[in-house]
Write a structure and sequence with these properties.
Strand content: 5-15%
Structural class: alpha/beta
Largest sheet: 3 strands, parallel
Distance between the termini: 68 Å
Helix content: 40-55%
Strand order of the largest sheet: 1-2-3
Number of helices: 7
Order of helices and strands: HHEHEEHHEHEEH
CATH class of the largest domain: Alpha Beta
CATH topology of the largest domain: Rossmann fold
Protein name: Nucleoside 2-deoxyribosyltransferase family protein
């Protein structure tokens, strides 16, 4: 299951509440809960995830909101042909590839009256799935599609110098990726900051009967304008463009619109 915020509806606090509920169900089933990235040793987190996915007796996988990492980890567990229990909230659709596997559902709003039932149902599901996996006639997900030679995770021993070299190489690659990511983010942010699709111009209208003429003149003189309005309360013009424009063009349009306003906000009848 995810642990970080994914959207306004799926915050880290939401996942923390879900994890607490799942832990209750797992403990009730007689198992000790932990997330797959946990390890008693100080090691590379990806190695811990893969080893735990392969070695743990049973895994509960929450696919709510279809987090990419979670779906990948689910795929690994299924590829290892190991027992798994899938849960999801009632706002998440079934995935095409795993829709034929029974999911244990729960309400996304985590309403208390339904949470207790979910804990009971999930704990029973965990026990039944684990017990079934211990029997010789157990049929896993892969068994429905034929006979497969399942991949195994093997433990390998390497020398200290080789291990350090591998870690340093990985760190170099990660450092390079982070630099590229930061550079791309800065470029993206710069592009956002250097363009806009709206303008706000402060101006106190002196002749209210001229407002309609001013608004019409702005739209006529600048075809790129999609919408223009004025607030007497805030004494502001609001201009919305049909597309984003550069800051340089925004400054030019700002001066042009101000001239239109000044030239028409007078007592002359034309």
């Amino acid at each position: 299951m995810p642990i970080a915020t994914m959207s306004a509806e799926y915050t880290s606090d939401h996942w923390s509440d879900v994890r607490h509920i799942l832990h209750k169900a797992i403990e009730k089933a007689g198992f000790i809960p932990r997330i797959v990235s946990d390890s008693e040793e100080s090691t590379v987190i990806h190695g811990s995830i893969i080893n735990n996915i392969y070695n743990d007796a049973i895994i509960v996988c929450d696919v709510s909101n279809k987090n990419a990492n979670v779906m990948f980890e689910l795929g690994m567990r299924l590829a290892f042909n190991k027992p798994i229990v899938i849960v999801k909230d009632d706002k998440t659709d079934y995935s095409f590839d795993t829709g034929n596997i029974q999911h244990e559902p729960y309400r996304k709003d985590l309403r208390h009256s339904t949470v207790e039932k979910f804990i009971d149902d999930l704990s029973r599901k965990i026990v039944k799935t684990y017990e079934a996996s211990q029997r010789e006639e157990y049929q896993s997900f892969l068994s429905y599609f034929g006979k497969f030679e399942v991949a195994r995770v093997e433990n390998k021993s390497i020398g200290e110098s080789e291990a350090i070299e591998k870690v340093l190489n990985k760190m170099t690659v990660l450092e390079s990726q982070i630099k590229n990511l930061n550079h791309n983010n800065l470029e993206s942010t710069s592009n956002i900051l250097q363009s806009t699709d709206n303008l706000i111009i402060d101006h106190q209208i002196q002749y209210a009967d001229k407002l309609a003429t001013i608004l019409n003149m702005i739209e006529t003189k600048i075809p790129l304008v999609m919408e223009v309005s004025y607030s007497f309360e805030k004494e502001r013009f609001y201009i919305k463009f049909k597309e984003k424009i550069s800051i340089n063009y925004a400054h030019k349009y700002n001066e042009l619109i101000k001239n239109i306003i000044r030239n028409n906000d007078d007592e002359l009848p034309f």
